[in-house]
Amino acid sequence: MMPFGRVKIRVLLVLSSRPDPLCNSGVQLVWRSMGRCWCLVLIRIRLCGKKLLLNTIKVNVDGAIFAEEHKYGFGCVACGANGRLIEAISSSQLGIVGPEIAEVIGVKETLSWIKRKGWMEVEIETDALVVVQAVMGSIQMPSQFGFLVQDCRNLLSCINHVSLHFVKRSANRATYCVARASCYHSDRIFCEQDAPLELMSIVDVECL
Fold first, then answer.
1. Which domain holds residue 23?
2. What's the 3-state SS for the chain?
3. What CA–CA distances, in Å, run from 88 to 2, 120, 141, 174?
4. Three-class SS of 89-137
5. pTM (two decimals)
6. Do both 42 and 99 map to the same domain?
7. Which among 71, 14, 73 has a CA at the least distance from the CA of 42?
């Protein structure tokens, strides 16, 4: 396995070798930032995270709140056991909600996405500890949060071999960037063929 220091140097070379056009809009700036953050975290996950079993899919999810725009959103990033990007999605909606609502909606939408895909052997990771504890618990809560938690439990019960885990925020930065970008790029789906160039450059380096 290549030492982290050498990988970091190669990452910087790939990024600096690409043209650095002037970004004239907030959207372009978001995507440039998202690409770099996303790619660097994928490298870190592969080098420092636990090795996934063959055919296992790892899905990271994160929620986001955009107070000034009165919106909230989420982002998901799915990678295979080999660390290659399978698919990433982002979505946002109008509304004013608390952080825990945005996070649990992200988990619910992720479970629905996995169900539609027909994926099995999936590990879902989120940095929202309260959501993981609530979904994996059995307490009934008569609130909006509680109803969404129950929706997550119901989805988990009808999908084979799907687990939900808490990870530190430092291990969820890629999806954080995707979630933040959902304010400008709602209802977007990306795969290896059309993902941001910065992302795919780093993924390609990782797979060498």
1. 10-46
2. CCCHHHHHHHHHHHHHCCCCCCCCCHHHHHHHHHHHHHHHHHHHHHHHCCCCCCCCEEEEEEEEEECCCCEEEEEEEEECCCCCEEEEEEEEEECCCCHHHHHHHHHHHHHHHHHHHCCCCEEEEECCHHHHHHHHCCCCCCCHHHHHHHHHHHHHHCCCCEEEEECCHHHCHHHHHHHHHCCCCCCEEECCCCCCHHHHHHHHHHCC
3. 26, 17, 31, 10
4. EEEEEECCCCHHHHHHHHHHHHHHHHHHHCCCCEEEEECCHHHHHHHHC
5. 0.72
6. no
7. 14
Rounded Cα distance between 26 and 17, Å, is 23
For the residues 179-195, what does the mean pLDDT come to? 82
* Domain match, 83 and 177 both: yes
User: Would 41 be classed as within a structural domain?
Assistant: yes
Indicate the length of the chain as a whole number: 208
Chain segment 32-85, per-residue pLDDT in tens: 444 444 434 443 333 334 555 668 899 999 999 999 999 999 999 898 888 888
Q: Is residue 4 part of a domain?
A: no
